[in-house]
Amino acid sequence: MAKIKFKLNNKEIEIDENPNLRLLDVLRDKFEFTGVKEGCGEGECGACAVLINNDIVNSCIVPLGNVNGKEIMTIEGYSETKKYDVIKDAYAEEGAVQCGFCTPGMIIASESLLNKNPHPTEEEIRVGLSGNLCRCTGYNMIVKAVKSAAKKGDGLW
Amino acid sequence: MVKNVIPVSYSEALDLLNERPFKIIAGGTDLMVQRRSWAQTPPKFSEDVLYIFNLEELKYIKEVDGYIVIGSTTPVEDVLKNKLTPNLLKAAISIMASPALRNMATIAGNIGNASPAGDTLPILYTLDAIIVLESIEGIRELPIKDVITGPGKHIIKQNEIIKELKLPISVFTNSAFEKVGGRKADAISKVSFTGAVNIKDNKVLDFRIAFGAVSATILRRKDLEEKYVGLTKDELIGKVDEIVADYDPFVRPIDDQRSNKEYRKTVALNLLRNFIETL
Prior knowledge:
The structure holds 2 protein chains of 2 kinds.
Chain A: E1 2-8, E2 11-17, H1 23-30, E3 49-52, E4 55-58, E5 71-73, H2 75-78, H3 82-94, H4 103-116, H5 122-128, H6 140-152
Parallel strand pairs in A: 1-5
Antiparallel strand pairs in A: 1-2, 3-4, 3-5
Chain B: H1 10-19, E1 23-25, H2 31-34, E2 49-51, E3 61-64, E4 67-71, H3 76-81, H4 87-94, H5 99-102, H6 107-113, H7 121-126, E5 130-135, E6 138-143, H8 144-147, E7 148-150, E8 153-154, E9 161-168, E10 174-180, E11 191-200, E12 203-212, H9 222-227, H10 233-238, H11 240-247, H12 261-277
Parallel strand pairs in B: 1-2
Antiparallel strand pairs in B: 3-4, 4-9, 5-6, 5-9, 7-8, 10-11, 11-12
Helix pairs in contact in B: 11-12
């Protein structure tokens, strides 16, 4: 056990836990943020993506011990922002959501990309989403959605 | 009794390592997968874990006396974005894993994990990287080829930590990094190749070749490289068959779930041939 402090969706948290725990399990089981999904469990599919200090990480391979002092944002926290509304509307308009399992991770990846690069090229979008697998859409609609979000949300990022 | 520790300072980490054995985790992108257990359960570690990823003291990239020095907990994404980082290393990092992994993964982790397929390792061998190991007893500086001894094997002592790596600043007129994997992102290499040459006044001053995932450790042969220093560029290109034949006996890949030895060997030697023919 170890004392671990972090910010989760803008709330200060202090817990005494096993630092070996996967951040994914802590978020889902302890805090009930079930928008964070487990897909592959080995960092290859991006369904478990969250933001740590505004950058995307895969929470299935982040040990709790590595988040001490960090700011974590899950899709639940992010969905309260204006930027989320822009991305969500763009995904809906472009038909970028089918079964929806990859969507929280895709949106986190979209945010992480736009935060660093508010006007990405198509190639940059594909690289930005390269760690997130979607088995329904074939990706083109998601890429279009990110392009559209960048345009409609101009000035937000 | 298992006691995992998140040290608050680098000196605390060194003290702890001197007291008892630990498994050191930096970004954890390899270890969390290697030790994974069932869903909803933590990975299994038989040893105590020391979490060093958030030691800010080890997050730096600087230029010191002809070296680019990279602190061991610097995520590779930060290494990629830094203007001091050698272009060859940037080339390897830019196609490594995915943005999410690059925000956590460290180069020191590639060294500690010592996989023959580690993405940055052929570059570190090509650049003659020096690994700086520290313990409470002092500092050791070793060339990377003397640190990694086999798949998953290295000579880092139980009380030591990788403090930083030093990359001698070198000049190349042509260089290339090629990785062959099953998917563009998040793939472990089937084969990787690095070539770097410095040609000045039509004379080959420096010629370096390294392969990943074709032998127990990264393949680099200085004895073969030296044969071709001093030639003109056209002479070097004219000797492509001889160069490929020189490397052939040392390219000894294995069959595994990612690829087979015939494919790996063919691709590795083709990458070498292509690099020389297109100089």
